[in-house]
Amino acid sequence: MVIFGASGDLTARKLIPGLYELHRRGLLPDRFAVLGAGRTGMSDDRFRRTMRAALQDGGDGQPPPELERFVGALHYQQLDTGSAGGYGKLAERLQAVDAAAGTGGNFVYYLATPPSLFEPIAGGLAGAGLAAERDGEWRRLIVEKPFGYDLESARRLNERLHAWFTERQIYRIDHYLGKETVQNVLVLRFANEVWEPLWTRATIDMVEVTGAEQVGVEQRGGYYDGSGALRDMVQNHLLQVVGMIAMEPPAHFLPSAVRNETVKVFDSLRPIDPSQVVEQVVRGQYTGSLTTDGALAGYREEAGVPRGSRTDTYVALRFYVDNRRWAGVPFLVRTGKRLPARVTEIVIHFKQVPHHLFGTPPASVTSGVPDPAGAGRRVASVSAAAAEASKLIIRIQPDEAIQLRCNVKLPGAGFAVRQVAMDFRYADLADTYLPDAYERLLLDGMIGDATLYARADAIESCWEFVTPILTAWRERPGIPLHGYPAGSWGPAAASGLFERPGHDWHSPMPSLCEPGGRVEM
Questions:
Q1: Which pLDDT value is given to residue 387?
Q2: Residue 262: its pLDDT value, please?
Q3: I need a surface site. Which of 80, 173, 333, 386 has the fewest CB within 10 A?
Q4: Would residue 252 show up in a list of annotated catalytic residues for this protein?
């Protein structure tokens, strides 16, 4: 594996720890090596010391088992990504490491670099003869996000990469798809016949997806200001999650079949007309506030953020999937920074019962007075909670879980009804290891399983959906940018996306966490 950008944060924080965990669990081949490449001058020994420190950071001081053997497989090559001659030296070094490790000429290139370097690196590899596959050897290119800045740039990047690598060789990584609970959406739906008759517009009222971040932009203000929440989270992560929720059953569980079905979902997204952006999309930007944790700076006060910036740090939208299964079912998606908790979850809201035997609908609840027609009955003798519809909640992070909320009778006289939860948490599987998303995706990339990687047409379809929104924001400066206090759940205007009175966003507050990280909805 050749990691470009090996001196960066992603390598030390995610890639090397992910590879080490795979090694420790016996999932890497014995013939394996890592060659880090970057602008920073560094010897093999210095690179190994740096990565060893990253692997031991936060530990008990004892070297993890197998650490030295893994670290011994790490190498480093200084590289100027803009120099054609640098790739010739890289090719020579690769041949030497390949021969010493016995890896058979099979290379995975991981671009842990800024997007501006994707094209130069891919072209440099091709120019040095490192892209073409021959004589049973394979080459794979793993590309980090963001993949393009808009539809036009994404298409151009796809065209350029396809000039040097085939689509079969290109793996566009989205770490959300590597999370166990996202993958479990597929198992939950397609391995349990009970859900298939319910996974339809006939029984589902709406689908809600939340991707909340507690942190602000931290030290990435300059980068983030050129991106924003819609580009950074919705276009890739959250639309990919929607694809998993809404897809049809694939003919088989091979990469091509699974990815074909998600692309069909993206192609079925009803375009949001620029004239309807105000009604269907709410954007916000966090402002300074005083919380129990202290004072939190507003977005425009963060380092690297221009004064007067109108970049979105929050976005919520309502849209529809125009196909037979989902016709008329609203999908509500929101994401933002400086929200009260770090949480990603899916909420499937089932329809309300058509006939309310145990209470009245919330909109017409009356006082608990005797019903003259009913022999001592009382109208609405139960709380409005009795009318709550059932929900299926899929918690992606943290404390990965699946929870079904349904109504039951409270003990005692009468038919007082309360909603209770039945749940499953991965943490309850004490003997089961829950891999990090990067571990799963790195392993898939090495074995050639592209199921959880985005395909070119999927990337372009997602950009095609969000582009009218970006265009409207750019061309219509009068569209509101709502401020929201840091530490809140976002602009109040986002509640207006729900089309019926009394509906609002499901809020899994962090104050409901039990010791040990168990989250009660």
A1: 54
A2: 93
A3: 80
A4: no
Q: What is the pLDDT of residue 21?
A: 92
Report DSSP letters for 347-394, one per residue.
EEEEPPPSS-SSS--GGG---S-B-TTSTT-BTT-S-GGGGPPPEEEE
- Contact between 311 and 298 under an 8 Å Cβ cutoff? The reply is no
How far is 262 from 285, CA to CA, in rounded Å? 31
Q: Which structural domains are found in the chain, ordered by start?
A: 2-144 (3.40.50.720), 178-346+396-403+416-431+453-512 (3.30.360.10)
| Beta-carbon contacts of residue 410 (< 8 Å; ≥ 6 apart) | 416, 417, 418
Residues 6+ apart with CB under 8 A from 459: 147, 148, 154, 158, 172, 236
Of 237, 482, 503, 506, the active-site residue reads 237
**Measured between alpha carbons, how far is 242 from 359 in angstroms, rounded to an integer?**
34
User: Nearest CA to 279 among 235, 238, 330, 321?
Assistant: 330
Task: Tell me what pLDDT residue 356 has.
Answer: 67
**Structure confidence at residue 365 (pLDDT):** 40
68-125, pLDDT tens digit by residue?
899 999 999 999 888 878 999 999 999 999 999 999 999 999 999 888 899 999 999 9
Please state the φ and ψ torsions of residue 296, each to the nearest 5 degrees: -115, 130
CB-based contact 423:391 (threshold 8 Å): no
Residue indicated by tokens 């420790």: 24
- How far, CA to CA in Å, does 131 sit from each of 89, 99, 123, 127, 395? 15, 18, 9, 8, 39
d(CA 277, CA 468): 8
Please give the pLDDT value at position 148.
87
Strand order in the sheet with 139-143: 74-78, 34-38, 2-4, 107-111, 139-143, 170-172
Q: What is the pLDDT of residue 354?
A: 75
> Which pair of structure tokens corresponds to residue 519?
């989250």
The reported pLDDT for the residue numbered 56 is 79
Which parts of the chain register pLDDT below 50?
58-59, 364-386, 510-521
pLDDT at 373: 42
DSSP letter, residue 425: E
**What is the CB-side half-sphere exposure of residue 413 using CA atoms within 13 A?**
3
* Distance separating alpha carbons of residues 451 and 7, to the nearest angstrom: 29
Rounded to two decimals, the pTM is 0.85
Cα distance between residue 137 and residue 164, in whole Å: 16
Q: In what order do the strands lie in the sheet with 330-336?
A: 417-425, 401-409, 391-397, 343-350, 204-212, 330-336, 314-320, 281-287, 482-485
Residue 490 to residue 397: CA distance in whole angstroms:
19
Please give the angle made by the CA atoms of 384, 389 and 391, to the nearest 5 degrees. Answer: 130
Q: What are the φ/ψ torsions at residue 96 (nearest 5 degrees)?
A: -65, -45
500: phi then psi, degrees, rounded to nearest 5: -120, 145
Which pLDDT belongs to residue 290?
A: 87
Residue 485 pLDDT: 95
pLDDT for the residue numbered 386: 44
Alpha-carbon separation of residue 45 from 5, 30, 86 (angstroms): 17, 21, 21
